[in-house]
Amino acid sequence: MRLRNWWRTTKLALVVLIGVTSCATLAQDKPTDAKAVRAVVDAAAARYIKENPQAAAIAIGVVYGPVRIQSRAGTLELGKARPPRPDTLYPLASITKTFTGTLLAQAVIEKRLLLTDDIRKYLDGAYPNLEFGGLPILVSDLLDHRSGLPFILPDRPELAPDFKGDARPYTVRVNAAMQGYGRDQFLHDLHAVKLKAKPGSHYQYSNAGAQLAAYILEKLYGSPYEQLLRAKILTPLRMNATTISLSPTDQKRLAPGWDDKGQLAILPVGEEAAGGLKSTTDDMLSYIQWQIDETDPAVRLSHERVWTAKGPVFGDRGTFGVGLNWQIAELSGRRVIFQDGMIEGYSALVVIEPEAKLGIVLTANQLDEKSAAAERGLMKALLMALAPQAVPLPE
């Protein structure tokens, strides 16, 4: 569950030059040797921690052609020397939705559904409320945030991230509401949803949409979402450390998360398909490589735009749109495909440049305004340093 995208409104100059002075050997915008890539990535990680003493730890993973690099810096526990490890687990938050989107794409490839189907085709009972002006919610609307469904179900005022009438931390409020809340309660509450506009007509961020997509997938395949995810994505990609449910061993490997007050954060429960995955840098590099290659038809379909924004995004050039929860910007025939994830205490960002054969993942166990902006700047600087001709991230 993403909270505030602080980087959208915060100046990003803090770290925009990270690593640039050490990247002369990478200026040809093509995969190079691992030693040169590592030098850039290690310098970026170290400088991020040096310039952001409020931050805890940062983990960086890079796939660049045949090169696969990981780098880590900082501490998992504020005030103590506890560096992150290769097996450290980080919550992916809303990046989970890209996995859900790819599962939907696989269902399309297998001819189990169409992205243009009315979602009510896959729901038991009548839902006359899930249309507006004669237009129903489509399957694709669930993963591009144009369904009109609320931010979360149950749809309660105190579960809005910016609700001011409850002093409890947001995750505490969510977990209290989600106690004993499952599929049956979700579908019951879905009957009470009132759409305010035609589906597909405007953007309204919704975790409930992604969770409903998971329930549709469960009905199609007759398997729980996490089991389906493991069978169709995690096991084939050998992402053996990636999980939603945490075993006692996983709990020990999970990075502690720190909020903007330097306090330990609590992970939210519920709506697993919207933000429940935890993963390691190594596992995420396997996922990124799969996304870069685009040889799997489901991956290609998940990268196809469901809608495109009006007007250019890079001055008077370039376009922006959304696929199955991937944000996609294109400039001069090249694409940057990306998605972020933020929950209290954690942030993550994945960027894929298929034409440059480059992918980067950042995971951090600190979420505050300065750190979020610095992570965005770190990603932009790495793209510039490793592949100067790559498409920049939109502002």
Question: What does this protein look like?
Answer:
This protein is α+β, with helices and mostly antiparallel strands. The chain has two domains: 6-88 and 277-386, 3-Layer(aba) Sandwich (Beta-lactamase); 98-234, DD-peptidase/beta-lactamase superfamily (Beta-lactamase), CATH 3.40.710.10. The chain is built from eleven helices and twelve strands. The chain has helices spanning 34-51, 96-109, 170-178, 183-190, 207-221, 225-234, 248-253, 272-275, 281-293, 297-302, 369-386; strands at 57-64, 67-74, 90-91, 131-132, 135-136, 278-279, 307-308, 319-322, 327-331, 334-343, 346-353, 358-364. An eight-stranded antiparallel β-sheet has the order 2-1-12-11-10-9-8-7, sandwiched between helices. It has a two-stranded antiparallel sheet with strand order 3-6. Strands 4-5 form a two-stranded antiparallel ribbon. Strand 4 and strand 5 form a beta hairpin. Helix 2 (96-109) runs parallel beside helix 5 (207-221). Mean pLDDT is 90; it is low at 1-25.
How much beta, percentage-wise?
15-25%
Radius of gyration: 20 Å
Strand order in space, largest sheet: 2-1-12-11-10-9-8-7
**Helix/strand order, N-terminal first:** HEEEHEEHHHHHHEHHEEEEEEH
CATH evolutionary superfamily of the largest domain: DD-peptidase/beta-lactamase superfamily
- Approximate helicity band: 25-40%
The assigned structural class equals alpha+beta
Q: Number of DSSP strands?
A: 12
> What is the CATH topology classification name of the largest domain?
Beta-lactamase
Distance between the terminal alpha carbons, to the nearest Å? 22 Å
Seen as an oligomer or otherwise, the chain set is single chain
Shape, per Cα inertia axes:
globular
| Mean of all residue-level pLDDT scores | 90
Q: Give the low-pLDDT segments.
A: 1-25
Major sheet summary line: 8 strands, antiparallel
Can you tell me the number of structural domains?
2
- Determine and state the CATH class of the largest domain: Alpha Beta
Named at the architecture level, the CATH assignment of the largest domain is: 3-Layer(aba) Sandwich
Number of helical elements: 11
